[in-house]
Automatic annotation (TrEMBL):
Protein name: ABC transporter permease
Domain ABC transmembrane type-1: 95-304
Annotated compartments: Cell membrane
Membrane topology (UniProt): Multi-pass membrane protein
UniProt keyword Transmembrane helix, yes or no: yes
One Pfam family in the UniProt entry: BPD_transp_1
GO biological process: transmembrane transport
Keywords noted in UniProt: Cell membrane, Membrane, Transmembrane, Transmembrane helix, Transport
GO CC, any one term: plasma membrane
Family listed: Belongs to the binding-protein-dependent transport system permease family.
């Protein structure tokens, strides 16, 4: 297992290198000039050129990449064009809200989706099953930003139960912290609840038809024991896979959700950096997200051996 983990970690190096090259080239080959944005609408060509030279954008692309990649190997993500501070410092300042939103979303998703999927499989063909599947279809169909604005209108504006926007750190108090995170977490979790509940239902339903389930029931075990100890555990591998993919997809979800709820996290930072063509910030954030994605896939592979001891690496 240790050798497998070491090999997977080493394999991430060329992957992240390709991501770095792709992001670097994609940003510089798309339309838009950060120097023109920084200079303003009334700037002259000479002023824009002076800013481009100061930012190093007049150098050949291979020279720009060599300088940036050399700094990256030393742990230096560069300095933000617009925030005028190191990118790694900027990321550390914004990672707290994003991590808080992702964790609360994940907790809500697992606590709701897995029981829903198990119940739907157990009540296969009944009204409960059709309601869960209907919710899954609805969850996939409604865009995150639309659901966010609906929840804001109803629970924040009409009922006044939650704040419309904003974020409070844990230092402000646990209740205040959670009070600001409930609406965005629910907004972000709905699509993942739909996905995981659907996969859980299919996996558990398949396992419930196996011979060992009939044997467990013939031994007189309670349905709850059969479902949780035998069916759910044997159906855990595809469920864990989808949960891991869902965590990785949260990267895209937080960008929209943080913009809707005005949360100062990495998602909102990404939007601001893209609008301002802030190359170093965009590159740094995407590299961080890519590293998280690779780490999640590694954790999923390790989790397989826990839920199914027959799997060996």
């Amino acid at each position: 297992m240790i050798g497998f983990i070491a090999r997977r970690l080493l394999a991430t190096i060329p992957v992240l290198g390709m991501v770095a090259l792709f992001v670097f080239m994609m940003l510089r080959l798309t339309p838009g000039d950060p120097a023109a944005i920084m200079a303003g609408d009334n700037a002259t060509a000479a002023q824009i050129l002076e800013i481009r030279e100061r930012l190093g954008l007049t150098q050949p692309l291979y020279t720009q990449f060599a300088i940036w990649f050399g700094n990256l190997l030393q742990g230096n993500l560069g300095e933000s064009f617009f925030f005028k501070m190191p990118v790694h410092t900027l990321i550390l300042q914004r990672v707290g809200p994003t991590l808080s939103l992702a964790v609360t979303t994940l907790i809500i998703t697992i606590l709701v989706a897995v029981p829903l999927g198990v119940i739907a499989a157990y009540r296969h063909g009944t009204l409960v099953d059709r309601l869960v599947m209907g919710f899954s279809v609805l969850g996939f169909s409604v865009p995150v930003f639309v659901l966010g604005y609906i929840l804001i209108w109803f629970f924040a504006i009409e009922l006044g139960w939650f704040p419309v926007q904003g974020y409070k750190p844990p230092e402000a108090g646990l209740l205040t912290f959670l009070h600001h995170l409930i609406l965005p977490s629910i907004t972000l979790s709905v699509i993942y609840i739909a996905l995981i509940a659907r996969i859980t239902r299919a996996s558990v339903l398949e396992v419930l038809g196996e011979d060992f389930i009939r044997t467990a029931r013939a031994k007189g075990l309670r349905d709850s024991v059969v479902l949780m100890r035998h069916a759910l555990r044997n159906a855990a591998v595809p469920i864990v896979t989808v949960i891991g993919i869902g965590i990785a997809l949260l990267i895209g979800g937080v960008v929209v959700t943080e913009s809707v709820f005005n949360i100062p996290g990495l998602g909102r930072l990404t939007v601001d950096a893209v609008l301002g063509r802030d190359y170093p910030t965009i590159q740094g954030v995407i590299l961080v997200f890519s590293g998280v994605y690779v780490l999640i896939n590694l954790l999923i592979d390790i989790a397989y051996t826990i839920f199914d001891p027959r799997i060996r690496y």
